[in-house]
Write a structure and sequence with these properties.
Chain A: InterPro entries: 4_helix_cytokine-like_core, Somatotropin/Prolactin, Somatotropin_CS. Chain A: Keywords: Disulfide bond, Hormone, Secreted, Signal. Chain A: Belongs to the somatotropin/prolactin family. The complex is a heterodimer of chains A (212) and B (611). Chain A has 7 helices and no strands. By secondary structure, chain A is mostly helical. Chain A has a domain of 147 residues: Up-down Bundle (Growth Hormone, Chain: A). In chain A, helix 2 runs antiparallel to helix 7, helix 4 runs antiparallel to helix 7 and helix 5 crosses helix 7. Chain B is built from 19 helices and 20 strands. In chain B, strands 3, 4, 6, 7 and 8 form a 5-stranded antiparallel beta sheet that branches. In chain B, strand 1 and strand 2 form a beta hairpin. About 38% of the residues of chain B have low confidence. The chains are: A mainly alpha (212), B alpha+beta (611). At the A-B interface, helix 2, helix 3 and helix 7 of A face loops of B.
Chain lengths: 212, 611
């Protein structure tokens, strides 16, 4: 009896400590969100510049053939306008952002591989930027995961968006076209992520009206 | 009716028109063009198109759009709100993250034309409205005035929810300038602008941009006037500058007023040569003769007979005392030495000081002087007298010597003393010299028996020159000196009278019969020639030389001249007359001339002659 009480007390103490630790970990949520929005902003800017580099020498080929609706992440249900977006709860927004981000880890790896041998005059530039894209995505994913942990268990539900292609094509034009298409899909999705995170940021920072 | 059925009736009508009216000048409209689409707040958006050629007929435009992934064609819901040739998409019609395929169709009776389709994603075409309520105010702090600009976000943009994030930018320039100064204000809605010029008018404009979108238009400029401001340091510097400028002006004015005295102080005037009687005017006139005549000073050089000058003369007579003195070399030397200490102050008066041995004052003022004077032997006589009178003349021992001028002033029997250390020395030297010279002269030149010479200082010489043959004296001295004191020798002095001094500074002397009884030997010289002034030594000794054939001269042996003196001196001791002296004497004319020195200042003093 005494041992049980002792072990119980020990467990309790540890739990309390852990809870305390968890709740009082150094980084504030606002700061986390701030950091995340900055990252997502950077991510989208990179993708935009990459698209411009790609389009500098070749007009969008197959733009009509491949629609953004054919992106592998199009199945994800996201708010289409502001009113809808503002109605979505925070954790769901976060979950959406995380799901999108997760869906792009594989395609970005493919893009990074393909960019080294891309038949394009700006290949070196594209290559470096693609690598950077990958890094930012990974760090943002880690940050969002932490954020999700802070927010609560409900934000942990993620949608799976698989990506099945393992190469961009065989011939030069296909490769370029597919590269361009993938990049456009990513650009849009990065904008989504950025938007959602900034909404989350302002929603959380009720004490700082000057920021929002 | 749907969009799809819309074009068909138009098309048939258009074709009919074309067929039915071939030459009416009308045609189908030209292709319109979608200019751009913009969304100010990421909630709505507007598209504008540019109409093409209308073909001369009233043309209508219609905008049709299609969403990606759907084939449904929609027509523009609102042609009015955004103005002409525009299509406004309201919130309900706007979907984000979806591509819109938009095209415009222009149609008239003749036909229609379709524009190029445009793919639009609303999130990429965000351009907010301009910021609002721009306020500029002037504030001040320690460093001066500055501008504070405040503004508001555009009303349409919902930044509160974070739906849209805006960053601001402002620019400032002087009203008259051309280039703007841009500042990034970030997400804040105010900004402080520093380092603006006081007293100038400035313009301020603000604009904004969404995080991923286009810059808005600039706000209308706000004009602001900066106040006049004088920083404290600048005012101080201005004060300093003003005061220093004032001081400089004052200084300059003072300098200007006192120009002359300043010039005197800084650049002392260099005395120019003044030639008495020089008249510039005459020179300018070009008559050189007149000018030169003007320079001539009447009465110069003196052409009067020299008899006036040489009225008085000394009487030199032989005396036992002198013999004693002569013999007493040591005494003489001692006296000489003692008196040699006194400095020679011959200042051009040609005083018979120093080298002159003629008129040395005897120690004994009365008789000795006379004796001295009587000697008239240049320095020798004087020295002799001094030496002789040494025991009896404390003055000599004391070295009391008076300047010649005093002597000169009262000619003849008066106490004249000369101050001539050199003379004393000379006499000192000369005494032995006399003794040495004279015998030497006699001995050496005795054969020649020609030497005659006198030393006298210039004025003294002129005035009181008592000339007498050296030979006699010398001979006597010679006779006496070697034997030192025992000899009693009557110095035979020949007295000469300076008759005249011709223009060449030649003293013409004539023998004078001594009232006291000239030495018989002297008489030998009565018919002697005049002495001629050979030269004037530096010790104010007039070197006389016998005129005519006989080259007679008196060397200033006993001057300070080492060359001449030393040998004599040495030989004195030895009681042997220097052969050098002898040599000197042997070659009187040449050597002596060489060794002669000008007496005193080296020039003939005319003052005494003229006085």
């Amino acid at each position: 009896m005494a041992r049980r009480s002792q072990s119980t007390r020990l467990h309790l103490a540890v739990t309390i400590l852990m809870c305390a630790f968890v709740s009082t970990d150094g980084v504030d949520m606002n700061d986390l969100l701030e950091r995340a929005s900055q990252l997502s902003d950077k991510l989208h800017s990179l993708s935009t510049s990459l698209t411009n580099d790609l389009d500098s020498h070749f007009p969008p080929i197959g733009g009509k053939m491949m629609r953004p609706s054919m992106c592998h992440t199009s199945s994800l249900q996201i708010p289409n306008d502001k009113d809808q977006a503002l109605r979505v709860p925070e954790n769901e927004l976060l979950s959406l952002a995380r799901s999108l981000l997760l869906a792009w880890s594989d395609p970005l790896a493919l893009l990074s591989t393909e960019s080294t041998t891309l038949p394009h005059p700006e290949r070196s530039n594209i290559n470096s930027k693609t690598k950077e894209l990958q890094d930012h995505t990974n760090s943002l994913g880690a940050g969002l995961e932490r954020l999700a942990f802070k927010m609560g268990p409900s934000s942990e539900a993620l949608s799976s968006l698989p990506f099945y292609n393992n190469n961009l094509g065989q011939d030069k034009i296909s490769r370029l076209a597919n590269f361009h298409f993938l990049l456009s899909c990513f650009r849009r999705d990065s904008h989504k992520i950025d938007s959602f995170l900034k909404v989350l940021r302002c929603r959380a920072a009720k004490m700082r009206p000057e920021m929002c | 009716m749907g969009i799809s059925s819309g074009p068909k009736p138009f098309l048939t009508v258009g074709v009919l028109f074309i067929l039915l009216s071939p030459a009416t000048g009308f045609s189908a409209p030209g292709r319109p063009r979608v200019i751009n689409c913009r969304s100010p707040e990421k909630e709505t958006f507007t598209c504008w198109w540019e109409p093409g050629d209308d073909g001369g007929l009233p043309t209508t435009y219609a905008l049709y759009y299609r969403l990606e992934g759907s084939e449904t064609i929609y027509e523009c819901p609102d042609y009015k709100t955004a103005g002409e040739n525009s299509c406004f998409f309201s919130k309900n019609d706007t979907s984000l993250w979806v591509d819109y395929n938009i095209s415009v169709v222009a149609s008239n009776d003749m036909g229609k034309s379709v524009s190029e389709p445009v793919e639009v994603d609303v999130v990429y075409i965000v351009q907010p409205n301009t910021p609002e309520s721009v306020m500029v105010s002037v504030l001040e702090d320690n460093h001066g005035p500055y501008l504070r600009v405040d503004w508001e976000k555009p009303q349409s943009a919902d930044t509160r929810s974070g739906w849209i994030t805006l960053v601001y930018q402002l620019r400032v320039k002087q009203a008259k300038d051309e280039t703007w100064e841009e500042y990034d204000a970030g997400m804040q809605k105010y900004y402080n602008v520093f380092s603006l010029h006081s007293g100038k008018e400035y313009m301020v404009q603000v604009r904004c941009k969404p995080d991923h979108g286009f810059w808005s238009e600039w706000t209308t400029p706000v004009y602001i006037q900066m106040p006049d401001y004088m920083p404290k340091e600048r005012s101080m510097w201005i004060m300093v500058a003003v005061i220093s400028a004032f001081l400089i002006l004052l200084f300059g004015w003072t300098m200007n007023v006192k120009q002359n005295s300043v010039k005197h102080c800084l650049l002392p005037p260099v005395p120019g040569p003044k030639i008495q009687g020089f008249d510039q005017q005459l020179l300018k006139n070009g008559k050189s003769e007149e000018m030169f005549n003007a320079l001539v000073i009447p009465g110069f050089p003196p052409t009067s007979t020299y008899e006036d000058l040489l009225v008085e003369y000394l009487e030199v007579y032989d005396d036992e005392k002198r013999e004693l003195v002569l013999n007493e070399k040591n005494l003489i030397e001692g006296s000489m030495k003692s008196k040699s200490t006194s400095s020679d102050n011959d200042s051009g008066r040609g005083s018979c000081d120093s080298r002159t041995l003629l008129m040395e004052k005897c120690v004994d003022e009365s008789g000795t002087e006379q004796e001295l004077s009587q000697y008239g032997e240049a320095s020798w006589a004087s020295s002799d007298s001094e030496g002789r009178d040494n025991p009896a003349s404390p003055g000599l021992e004391d070295g009391k010597v008076q300047m010649w001028p005093s002597v000169l002033s009262s000619p003849q029997s008066h106490n004249f003393q000369q101050q001539h250390p050199g003379g004393l020395r000379a006499s000192h030297h000369s005494v032995p010299e006399i003794s040495c010279v004279s015998p030497q002269v006699q001995t050496c030149c005795g054969q020649q028996d020609q030497l005659e010479g006198f030393q006298f200082s210039k004025p003294g010489l002129y005035r009181y020159a008592q000339m007498y043959s050296m030979d006699t004296i010398e001979c006597k001295h010679v006779a006496q000196e070697p034997q030192s004191q025992s000899q009693s020798q009557s110095l035979s002095a020949e007295y000469v009278e300076v008759q005249t001094v011709n223009q060449e500074n030649v003293l013409l002397v004539t023998p004078l019969s001594n009232p006291e009884g000239p030495n018989p030997e002297l008489s030998d010289f009565s018919g002697e020639d005049y002495s001629k002034v050979r030269d004037v030594t530096s010790d104010n000794v007039l070197l006389l030389q016998r005129d005519l054939s006989v080259s007679q001269f008196v060397g200033d042996y006993c001057q300070d001249q080492i060359g001449q003196v030393d040998p004599c001196f040495l030989q004195q001791q030895q009681q042997e007359q220097t052969c050098k002296l002898n040599a000197h004497l042997h070659h009187p004319a040449s050597t002596l001339q060489e060794d002669m020195r000008l007496a005193g200042n080296g020039y003939v003093d005319t003052t005494m002659m003229m006085s």
